[in-house]
Specification:
Blueprint: H1 2-21, H2 31-35, E1 40-41, E2 54-55, E3 66-71, E4 76-77, E5 80-85, E6 90-95, E7 101-104, E8 109-115, E9 120-124, E10 135-139, E11 144-154, E12 159-160, E13 165-166, E14 171-182
Parallel strand pairs: 2-14
Antiparallel strand pairs: 1-7, 3-4, 3-8, 5-6, 6-7, 8-9, 9-10, 10-11, 11-14, 12-13
């Protein structure tokens, strides 16, 4: 029993070290492996999407939400919990019935659909725009409307000289939304 516990602990430490300090990829069997074998494992202690004493958030949702992602090969994966990082434009995935969290290789993704039951987003890469970003599809048709959400981290910058004070006592994540109209010619 003690040897088994020691092996499990050693393996956990090894995975944490690999995920934080190297380019080694962890391959998960099953549907996720066929979807994207290039996803990076993160710490198994990734539990919250809010930063205490900060206004706003870097994540699209405050909890894990339902969703689906489609890669360049046309494969769709929807088994797990998802969240989107607005700062790095990265997708986080927690496999169903597991505590491990992965950041999905965004270079392999074509679209991301997320919903919490109230608010839904459909993110796509648009070839006529910057393909490093995901654009939220608002209207699709002859003329399509997309929005790009970029979130900036603004650290606390409170200052006072005893008479006049300025700035904020808190960190802030501020969204900047830009809208794009795509014409029929792209």
């Amino acid at each position: 029993m003690k040897i088994r516990l020691a092996l499990i602990t050693l393996f956990s430490v090894f995975l944490s070290h690999v995920s934080l300090h190297s380019q080694v990829q962890l391959i998960i069997p099953g549907d996720f492996q066929s979807f994207s074998a290039t996803s990076n494992p993160l710490s198994t202690t990734f539990k919250t999407f809010t930063l205490k004493d900060a206004a706003g958030t870097r994540y699209l949702y405050k909890e894990w939400v339902k969703g689906s992602v489609t890669n360049k090969a046309g494969k769709t994966f929807e088994d797990g919990g998802f969240n989107f990082d607005k700062v790095s434009q990265s997708l986080y995935l927690r496999l169903k019935d597991q505590s491990s969290v992965f950041v999905v290789n965004k270079d392999q993704l074509v679209s991301i659909a997320l919903t919490d039951g109230n608010t839904s987003y459909l993110f796509k890469k648009i070839s006529s725009l910057d393909t490093n970003n995901f654009y939220n599809e608002l209207v699709k048709g002859k003329y399509s409307l997309y929005s790009l959400i970029k979130t900036e981290f603004i650290p606390a910058n409170y200052q006072t000289n005893g008479i006049v004070s300025s700035g904020n006592l808190y960190d802030e994540f501020k969204d900047h939304i830009t809208y794009y109209v795509i014409f029929p010619d792209g």
